[in-house]
Amino acid sequence: MKKEIFEPFNSSDNNFEQCVKCTICTVYCPVLEVNPDYPGPKQSGPDGERLRLKDPNFFDESLKLCLNCKRCEVACPHGVKIGDIIQLARIKYSKKKPKVRDMILANTDIVGTMASTFAPIVNPIVALKPVRLIMDGVLKIDHHRIFPKYAGMRFETWYRRYAASKQNDFKKHVSYFHGCYVNYNFPKQGKDLIKIMNAAGYGVHLLEKEKCCGVALISNNLIKQATKQARHNVEAFKKSIVDKNMPVISTSSTCIFTIRDEYPHLLGVKNDEIRDKSELATRFLFRLIDSGKLKLVFKKDYRKRIAYHTPCHMEKLGWSIYSTALLKMIPGIDFVSLESRCCGIAGTYGFKKENYKTSQGVGKPLFDQIESSDVDFVATDCETCKWQIEMSTAKKVEHPISILAEALDVEATVKLWQK
Amino acid sequence: MKFDNIIIGGGLSGLTCGIKLAEQGKKCAIVSSGQSAIHFFSGSFDLLGKLNGQEVKNPLEAIKTLPDAHPYQRVGIKNIARLAVEAPQLLDRAGLQFSGKSDQNHFVLTPMGIMKPTWLTIDDFTRFEQNDVFPWKKAVILNFSGFLDFHTLFVQDGLKKYDVDVQIKNFAMKEFEAIRRNPSEMRSTNIAKVFDQGEDVLNEFAQKVNQLSEGFEVVILPAVFGLFTKNVVTDLKSMINKPLVLIPAIPPSVPGIRSQILLRKRFEELGGTYFLGDIVEEGTFKNNRLVAVQTNNHGNIKLEADQFVLASGSFYSKGIVATRDKLYEPILGLDIDGDIDSEKWLDEKFFNDQPYMHYGVKTDSGFRALKNGKPIENLFAAGSVLGGANALKEGSGAGISLLTSLHVAEQILK
Amino acid sequence: MNKNISKEYDVIIIGGGVTGAGTARDCAMRGLSVLLVERHDFATGATGRNHGLLHSGARYAVTDHESAAECIKENMILRRIANHCVEENDGLFITLPEDDIAFQSQFVDACKTAGIGTEILDPDFARRIEPSVNPDLIGAVKVPDGSVDPFRLTMSNALDARIHGAVLLTQHEVKGIVKEQDRAIGVELFNHETKQNVNYYGKIIVNAGGIWGHHIAKLAGVNINMFPAKGSLLIFGHRVNKMVINRCRKPSNADILVPGDTICLIGTTSERIPYDQIDNMFVSRQDVDVLIREGVKLSPTLATTRILRAYAGVRPLVAADNDPSGRSISRGIVLLDHQERDGLSGFITITGGKLMTYRLMAEEATDLICKKLAVDKQCETAEKSLPGAEKSEHPLSIATEKVYTGANISQKSAKDRHGTLAKNILNGDDYEDSLVCECEGVSIAEVKYAINELHVNNLIDLRRRTRVGMGTCQGELCACRAAGLLCESFEKPGKAKDDLANFLQERWKGMLPITWGEGINEIQFTSWIYEGIYGLKPDNN
Ligand SMILES: Cc1cc2nc3c(=O)[nH]c(=O)nc-3n(C[C@H](O)[C@H](O)[C@H](O)COP(=O)(O)OP(=O)(O)OC[C@H]3O[C@@H](n4cnc5c(N)ncnc54)[C@H](O)[C@@H]3O)c2cc1C
Ligand SMILES: Cc1cc2nc3c(=O)[nH]c(=O)nc-3n(C[C@H](O)[C@H](O)[C@H](O)COP(=O)(O)OP(=O)(O)OC[C@H]3O[C@@H](n4cnc5c(N)ncnc54)[C@H](O)[C@@H]3O)c2cc1C
Ligand code: SF4
Ligand code: SF4
């Protein structure tokens, strides 16, 4: 049998040459600040790329310490895609094979499928101290970590049983990319989204079959599989966006960022046809409201003090304004904005034993801010940030969509457009 | 998304313009594709340091002799005098204490050990009123061992002129071992982060400084204190038992980054929106007005405003772009004040007055940017994106940025 | 004989290019007492301004059989004795749709005759092994081309000469040849450092002054007819190609793309210039245009790749003695025994040839010197490795990998540049490993080593030894750090500051013809740092 040749996609499109060596990026790298073993964005990115092109032996395995938070890219005045360069270097040059542990962490959907089927068994087991110590010792998953709970009924199942049939009652339609987290761990977020979108007059549909966006596969260097899933998802998106003229929205900033930007930049999977019509639910709603096509009415008695944490990928997307603008529309909200900082988890990164210290060190300034902010809870668009903040502070974390759903006066909102 | 004013570029001019507008109740947004030139600044803002190769004593007087096309002339001498008083006050409200006079330059000590004339200096640094007097006779320069971005011998050499007995001492502290483990990371900002993190380090450091400087009248150190918080500098000064002279290290500059952070914070506290890491890609014009701009991140959600300010910087910040044979303003395609003939852009001597340094966006007398020869009614240009001066040769970088931006804000507020 | 001789050398070699250094090494290895004098620094003539191509000879196979055969022989020798200066990249000769594919078979046949191994590749396969190659190619032949670092090669030869007892003087310019009747007996030198004149005496004076040999010969009262041919090149910001890419056609302008260290080079143009212009190496806009236009045909990505510098060198072409018009130019090695030719004894000239045939040139010159001095010693330079290239029991790739594991960028780079001599560089300590030049990975230890061991007088010399300031930023951050270290060693801060200013001017010269795009952004930034923040002046700092 002919072995499938997998050639890593090469996108070093000379972008690294735009670097003028100003060194600004290194000031904003959260890892460099706490872990001196990391060579930093400038050295790992544009500088290192030149050396690696001279001789691949210049690749340094410590590049895996990069969180791929892209804060360096946001700071760079010259548009150098530093984070992409580093991730691509790992893809191209790393000789280390992913460990069993990495595979387990990376395959959020397979593990999720298994775990949610056996949720009543799995949840107590992974929460048990001895089990966590085994995970620590054998699998090198840090024992401080509590796995997110697996829900008993998957979101997809719930949707088919209880929500699907009603969606065709609406005149306008969107598709929803729920992502693994909503499906396996936290279906409520998906339900909240449906509540809001329905209230806004949109029917919500699932994609023909969505696969995990693959962000964890990419960061654990399981590129072949990530590329496969990316191709699958782009096709699924096309069926909705191109064939049915239905935009795709999501509640996960990481999934949407991966699909819009990492697919073409890191995996070489083209997404031109779908990119513009794939976005976050908060952005979709903001646009409707901003252009006067929608008005949301909120409950009079909703009163909360909320801090918003900008996840790294939201910082990169520049989209936190949509979530915060929506939150600020709720009359009863006392809004506190936090200085934008990385929480340190970066998906599966912080779960690895060797990264635990770095991860918590990176997040500390954020945790301190949160602890002293005196808020009811923290709002954020990213599920892994949610875990990290809940594990590391005393505060609960909610998705903006869930907050909106909670504060929304559905009937009053519906009335406005039904007239 | 609708704002009263949108500013393209979040450097010194964009931020000060935005702060002034926001202070007057305007709903402003700044879009900045990345961090700005403030990250490199020496600690001093120059108004006019040199004229025809001669050092300037009184910038306000000297400005009068500048050519008509110079941005200062276009702001107007009277306005300059007034805004030059206003500028440090605005900075002060952002938590940045600068001092200096617009009618008399003072001097600062550069990393080469040279006295350089300037206008406003941030209070981290020492102001010298005369360039031929160094007020101390016995000085010690202290450096972190292995910190290559501070050139003790150059400073020592420079001070010889003033008859100062200068000694150099290097010292190590275990807290800096960690950054040294990384061959590229012994930088000023990383040293500053260590000091930012804990008082103990600063205490230990101050003690060491006091020990090593015994018998000297003044201590000279690289400016590596207070990246995210200014207290470090004030604390250090109070802990050291003699005068402390800080000297800039190789950029990025610690007080520079702090200034950028504080200016942004002030702007945001006034209700401004700062989009960092986003690029303005193009604009929509209607009847000689700019109605909206499109950015990379916000795509089809355009940013609209009544007035726009272009403060996108010079070549360095990509406010102006040169290709093999073309010179242009990349965002809105505005008219350029510069040579069409690419052979004329550069001078073969590195240290000569480089023609390209004078290039920038063309404006009318009210700083409205020109497009195809016509001023765009609601689009102003400010800061180093403007043409008409070689700010490096003149020593007028921050002066032009600050004063044109405040002037433009006034035009908008009129 | 002149009476006030403090010491008389067996040989005085004029010129610190690769030919001079190679000759010094050969002479010293054969037990002669040697003085080498160079007016500026090693490799500041054609040696430091060429293409760095380790020819397989294929380029000359069709037109100049003798050169081709010489090349392949020396090519194989250099791989052995100078493996730390050589990159065994292999080369492609590609045929584009506009070229005549029939030339390919003629080319392959000629290579075969010269002893150059060839392999005809399927265009698809060529695209796979060299992804940067023009995808439109219709034919490709693989040959054993390579890259050679001229700075390292020259320095290694000089070092080995020194190890064998030779005395090396840089910054010493020959202003006259001391003669006694019809015999050359010494050189009059001007020391650029001390601004003093000094004479040295020797039994044989070797003119290895490259194109300047014309002038040096004049100083001795003899005439060599040299025709300077200027060639311009562009340096791109990074390595676009892995293999050398040539056009499979008659040699022409800008048809070779050579990868070397962190960069790649397109070249060259070729233009006869008047002799009085040989010190004015200016690359014109037209040259730049030709280089880009032709370069893009070899590898289309060059169109969007940042250009770091442009520079030019002069080939020392010598006209045959019976042809003063210069029409019949010899491209081979030229060894002139001026005793036989002009009746001036004690004076010989070695010139012509190529960078990569330097060893053979040195051998021929040294053979002649030995004959004259009646020394009977065989040449060993083809067998004995240069310092840094000593044989290890492992093949090179394994040996480097061994050094690399767990090593940081400073150590890897030092090993890359200095071969086994890297063991004398004090890397491995946090302080010593700190980077001076971040683009090229030059550490404090390497800079110190170069200052102490490799005849460094100023920042520009340091650049040639270590690649400080040769990277993307062209000295923006590192020049100042390196100047600080130099200053510590020489303790002349005033000079170090001027030196820094000179360095920036020298970098600027090469950037001038190609400064646009990122280049102009970067240079504005650099100017603000050095002039704005530092207050550096062009001189008298
Ligand atoms: C290294 C350096 C050091 C300097 N030091 C001093 C000093 O010590 N003292 C002094 O007086 N002057 C100094 N200057 C001069 C300096 O240029 C001015 O002082 C001033 O900082 C310029 O401010 P600015 O806001 O006009 O431009 P910049 O600071 O250049 O800001 C322009 C901003 O616009 C953004 N931008 C560009 N294009 C776009 C786009 N399409 N979309 C969105 N954003 C965009 C850029 O990212 C950048 O943040 C220095 C300059 C440099 C380069
Ligand atoms: C554009 C170009 C591309 C080339 N490409 C290649 C290639 O790819 N491969 C290859 O093998 N060859 C190549 N060559 C040829 C090769 O560079 C030269 O043949 C070789 O470097 C000549 O070395 P040299 O030592 O003889 O001369 P040079 O390197 O010129 O050395 C002469 C030295 O003498 C010194 N000198 C001059 N006058 C005096 C004086 N009065 N007193 C003291 N010292 C003095 C000079 O400073 C200089 O250092 C190329 C040449 C050029 C011009
Ligand atoms: S911020 Fe951008 S331009 Fe500056 S060093 Fe980093 S990558 Fe290079
Ligand atoms: S992506 Fe984040 S962790 Fe990685 S180099 Fe950039 S700033 Fe550092």
Structure description:
The complex is a heterotrimer of chains A (419), B (414) and C (541). Chain A is of the alpha/beta class and 419 residues long. Chain A folds into four domains: 2-93, Orthogonal Bundle (Fumarate Reductase Iron-sulfur Protein, Chain B, domain 2); 100-139, no CATH class; 155-292, 3-Layer(aba) Sandwich (Rossmann fold), CATH 3.40.50; 304-407, Rossmann fold, CATH 3.40.50. Helix content of chain A is 53%, strand content 8%. Chain A has helices spanning 24-28, 30-34, 40-54, 71-75, 82-93, 100-106, 108-117, 119-127, 129-139, 155-163, 179-185, 187-199, 215-219, 223-243, 253-267, 272-275, 281-290, 312-317, 320-329, 356-371, 383-392, 400-407, 410-418; strands spanning 172-177, 202-206, 248-250, 278-280, 304-308, 333-337, 377-379, 396-398. In chain A, the strands form two sheets. In chain A, strands 2-1-3-4 form a four-stranded parallel β-sheet, with helices on both faces. Chain A has a four-stranded parallel β-sheet with strand order 6-5-7-8, with helices on both faces. In chain A, β7 (377-379), α21 (383-392) and β8 (396-398) form a beta-alpha-beta unit. In chain A, α7 (108-117) packs across α8 and α7 runs parallel beside α11 (179-185). The longest helix of chain A is centred in the middle third of the chain and has 21 residues, at 223-243. Chain A is globular and about 70 Å long. By secondary structure, chain B is α/β, with parallel strands linked by helices. Chain B folds into two domains: 2-96 and 257-413, FAD/NAD(P)-binding domain (3-Layer(bba) Sandwich); 137-242, Rossmann fold. Chain B is built from twelve helices and 23 strands. Chain B has helices at residues 12-23, 59-63, 71-75, 77-93, 152-160, 177-180, 188-197, 199-212, 231-239, 254-269, 391-394, 397-413; strands at 2-8, 28-32, 44-45, 50-51, 54-55, 98-99, 106-109, 115-118, 120-122, 138-144, 165-171, 218-222, 244-247, 273-276, 280-286, 289-295, 303-310, 321-322, 327-328, 336-337, 360-361, 368-371, 374-381. In chain B, the strands form seven sheets. In chain B, strands 1, 2, 14, 15, 16, 17, 22 and 23 form an eight-stranded mixed β-sheet that branches. Chain B is globular. Chain B starts with a strand and ends with a helix. Chain C contains 18 helices and 23 strands. Chain C folds into three domains: 2-46 and 151-225 and 326-373, FAD/NAD(P)-binding domain (3-Layer(bba) Sandwich), CATH 3.50.50.60; 87-148 and 227-315, D-Amino Acid Oxidase, subunit A, domain 2 (D-Amino Acid Oxidase, Chain A, domain 2, 2-Layer Sandwich), CATH 3.30.9; 396-540, no CATH class. In chain C, α1 (18-29) packs across α10, α3 (65-81) packs across α4 and α14 (444-453) packs across α16 (478-490). The N and C termini of chain C lie far apart (48 Å). In chain C, the strands form four sheets. In chain C, strands 5, 6, 7, 13, 14, 15, 16, 17, 18 and 19 form a ten-stranded mixed β-sheet that branches. In chain C, strands 1, 2, 9, 10, 11, 12, 20 and 21 form an eight-stranded mixed β-sheet that branches. In chain C, strands 3-8-4 form a three-stranded antiparallel β-sheet. With 541 residues, chain C is an alpha+beta fold. Chain C is 37% helix and 23% strand. The model of chain C is unreliable at 393-405 (pLDDT under 50). Classes of the chains: A alpha/beta (419), B alpha/beta (414), C alpha+beta (541). Chains in contact: A-B, A-C, B-C. Chain A binds chain B through residues 20, 22-24, 26-27, 32-33, 36-40, 42-43, 47, 73-79, 276, 283, 286-287, 290, 315-319, 321, 337, and chain B through 1-2, 33-36, 39-40, 178-179, 181-182, 184-185, 187, 189-190, 193, 227, 251-252, 257, 268, 273, 275-279, 295-301, 316-318. The structure holds flavin-adenine dinucleotide (2 copies) and iron/sulfur cluster (2 copies). Residues 29-31, 41, 66-72, 82-83, 86 of chain A line the site of one iron/sulfur cluster.
